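Re: glutamic acid structure - here you go.
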Amino acid sequence: MTVKTRFAPSPTGFLHVGGARTALYSWLYAKNQGGEFVLRIEDTDLERSTQEAVDAILEGMSWLGLDWDEGPYYQTKRFARYDEVVEQLLAAGKAYKCYASKALLDEVRAEQEANKENPRYDANHPKIKAVNDAAKDGDAFVVRFRNPKEGSVVFADQIRGRIEIRNDQLDDLIIRRTDGSPTYNFCVVVDDWDMGITHVVRGEDHINNTARQINIYEALGATVPTFAHCAMILGDDGAKLSKRHGAVSVMQYRDDGYLPEALNNYLVRLGWSHGDQEIFSRDEMIEHFSLNAISKSASAFNTDKLLWLNHHYIKTSDPEYVAGHLQWHLDHQGINPENGPAVTEVIQLLADRVQTLVELAQQARYFYEDFDAFDEAAAKKHLRPVAKEPLVLALEKITALETWTTENLHQVITDVCETLELGMGKVGMPLRVAVTGGGQSPSVDATMQLIGKARVMKRIQMAIEFIEQREANAG
Ligand code: GLU
């Protein structure tokens, strides 16, 4: 039997990290088993579903690289099929029409509550029975599934083990509303059945639905899939993860400068483990993934760990690949990389110093753009009158350089230090502030090499003038 899993989001908002983790686990299990992964959009809630949310989900899935073998299917395109199955259940007596109005159901519920009974739909309640018996053609009705009254639903959850839910806790579920629209628990079963889904991976908030759904599978004579219910994700304060904890939308992580590898690696470990390994390439995740190694307990989100992973992937991924993702941030920050060195070289120089692509883009700016002012604190400290002589001498030697290499630039700095009998810092720091505008950068020789000769000369000259201006003002 080929394993087939699915991710079935309701398009009522963006793809959040909880959904993304569920999608990742489903996807990984399919890949691990050499199976297939289906994407299904559960858009039957017409009021809450939007095209924008569908687009956001597709965008998030693509950004994470969670490609699907089938779909996206849309439930709204399958209404005829749901109707057909409703009719089949009605004909077999496994579902029935119920004419009770909302007002009557509310009345019965209030009565049950007053009698300290468990409030639930009861087809045998005399008032409900009377209405149903008296119904005539043309009266509005819903279709309810005839849930078994006795016994329990038992299933072997791949994460949580044996789960048993008594049938007397489940009432006769509405499967088609008065307006003819089918309901969630019913559509899911018809879809998973029709699409040949063998393993359903989803959040533990669906456990009660699973029991109802298993009864429907059985009524249809369909094979019941295997279930795996994942525990919740909590924020670092122990509360359920929400917007309050910062980014929860997958695309917000893109905007905040994460690589999809980092988020995937982070999410796979958030509730799943393989020994004490932390870093997993995509192939390793696929190779080692299993449903029963997913944790039963809730996992807490830890942004520092995500940043650590992001740093790792920025540093170790192919610079060409990082460049592809950095481009979005360069565009976003209005930096045009055509005005300077190859982005891959800038990445190689800066990767060790940043945790996000946002920082990488920010720090890349001086390679591509001139500036008209130095960072105030850095200039105050390093562009002082004593720095003028080493800058003038460095400019002279740099101007005379015939081959523009990091080694030659290093030699220039060493020569200036020797000639003026100054320590490295007294030459390197003013040069750094001069060419980058600030006090922090990778090693100044390699930085100057990448910035390029013309810009370096112009910027040192600007620093010299800055110092002269400062002297003039002081005098
Ligand atoms: N559409 C449901 C949701 O977004 C998921 C249903 C399922 O995975 O079975 O919560």
